[in-house]
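Practice set, problem 2.
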Amino acid sequence: MKIDIIYLDKVDSTNTYAKKLLNELKAGEGTVVWAREQYAGCGLGENTWHSRAGMNLTFSLILEPLFIQPDNLFCLNKAVALAVFNTIRTELSGDIQASIKWPNDIYAGDRKIAGILIEHTILGTSIKHSVIGVGINLNQVDFPADLPNPASLKQITGLNHDSEKFLENVCRSIDKEYSRLNRGEFKSINDDYNSSLFGCGCDLEFIAGSCSFTGRIKGVDDLGRLLVMTQDEKIGIFNHGEIILK
């Protein structure tokens, strides 16, 4: 995939800008919208993405995954999450480990270091476009007090990270995982994703509705639902918003 980078000094949201380019037929697969400052970054649902200007990496990548059926959309989420996870993992050392926290975050230890938002345009039985929004905390060392558990690579490693080089590395990793999808390697991507999940194989405390219980994450199914085995060895299936980790 050939990457074409559009650099912006300031924008409301790179995803919004990328979708505007698509609507105006000014962009195609491989277009990357990279912003030094994003003042209305989007997260999952109504969440926003906080990033201090020039300190982190915020970008959106346009893909045209016509080979993916709409009922298998989450396989693209898995591939992108693996790509961002693998890029971040290579920068960490010591006791801090990277993981994928379902459904759309990357963690370093028990702190959030990156977020992913994917928005699709579906035409009939095909995915016409996907806009992959990625935010990675690189060099910011102070965050608003109301953010629960943010972290940056600089906080963890003590090093400054070059955003342009990091962007190149992430895009290269996304291209690698995207090519695996195109070759039909869905099972291996699924296995890699599930084995990289935050807390996988550990006893964790969950809240679902008015109930709290101890369970173990067993993976994520093709529809993007979290599979949790309870202590009586039953498997619960949860959509986003139906379960939270204590």
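Problem 2, part (b): a different protein.
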Amino acid sequence: MLTPPRAPKVVTLQHLVGSTDPTLIDFMVAAHFPCQRPMALRHGVAEVPQWRILPDYATALSQSRTWQSTAGGGLLAVSEAMTVGTAVPSDLDGDWHRGWGALERLTPRDANAHPARVTTDLRRQWGWSRTGSIRLEPGKE
């Protein structure tokens, strides 16, 4: 089988991801990507990220897959439950042999899913008081 020569279009991470898309940036590399917008967490509801920036493979396995993991209640629970990750080929400019980390495009599992509508209320009460169950109870909203 013959195919025509392939000449990939190379762009910077900043050009591809930008500064407005919600991004899950692993803690170990967060300081290296100050121009990307971390996914928001407001009123206990996490924004669904569109991108994920990971450290090198060894660090991702030893760090990200431990305390950030779904089983540990970490941020990966959001991306793994709500999205499917696809690796985006990436290299360092001028140093294609060094592993810098990885970039994943996160695609929603359900394209028709809508963001949660959150309402808030300001109340003053004692920290130990509780008006209802802290568990989600079907049929009780």
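Answer key, part (b): The chain has a mean pLDDT of 86. The two ends are 60 Å apart (CA to CA).
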